[in-house]
Every structure is written in C-alpha cells, then in structure tokens.
Amino acid sequence: MFNKANRLEKFKDAETVIGASIKVKGNFQGQGNIIIEGVLEGSLKTDSNIFVGDQAKITANIEASDVIITGEVRGNIKAKNYLAIGDTAKIFGDVQYGEISVERGAIINGQLSSINEDNKHTEKIKTEDKATISSK
C-alpha cells in the first residue's frame, strides 16, 4: 500500500526536515511540507503536509493537510485532507481525518473521527491495541 518512493514524492520540496539525530522542543507553525525523522516535543502545524518517519518519536499535537505516519505519535492528529498510517506506526491520541488508509500492524490507541468539508457529519470509531481500518 505504501511504496516509500511514492510516499515521499510530495515531500521532495520539504521546507523543514528534522533528521534522525535531532531532538527539538517547541511549537512549530509553517506553510510548507515537513519531514520528521527525529524527536519532536510541543506542537506542529502546517498548511501543507507532514511525513513522520519510521524512527520518529513525536509528543505533540499535529495539524496539516495530508499526514503520513510510519513512526510514533503521542498527541492528537488532524489531517484535513488525507491520513496514511503505515504498518510501523504507533499512535496514542485522537485522530481527525478527511480520508484515511491504515496498513495492517499499525497501532492506534484513541478515537478516530471522519470529517467532511462542512464538518457536519462525524463518524467515530474507538480503537484499542492493533487495528486494521478501511474507509468507506
């Protein structure tokens, strides 16, 4: 489902990269694509896209247009458009998304809420432990 080359195609022009050996704390807000391979604590918001790599450990709320997660996130996630959760992902927090795909083996411990453009309809799914979830 997730070919690494395809996953990263939209991130080739990333504005910010937090490498695997980097640990940062703070509240980050931007407009460009962000790649996180290291450790981040605080909050993270962009008008574009966020990629959380396999080795990444994030303790923060995340908000972006598209979000791809293959690492660990402890905090709430809001993907206004599309959320892709890879098989190595570990999510501990509530998740809001426009569209979602989840690979088998991903761990999600929190509430999933589907939102549409007018935010009037919300579909809630409670998850515990390992989950495989597909959108309608």
From TrEMBL:
Protein name: Cell shape determination protein CcmA
Taxonomy of the source species: Bacteria, Candidatus Falkowiibacteriota
Gene source species: Candidatus Falkowbacteria bacterium CG10_big_fil_rev_8_21_14_0_10_37_18
PANTHER family documented for this protein: HYPOTHETICAL CYTOSOLIC PROTEIN, POLYMER-FORMING CYTOSKELETAL PROTEIN
Similarity comment: family membership: Belongs to the bactofilin family.
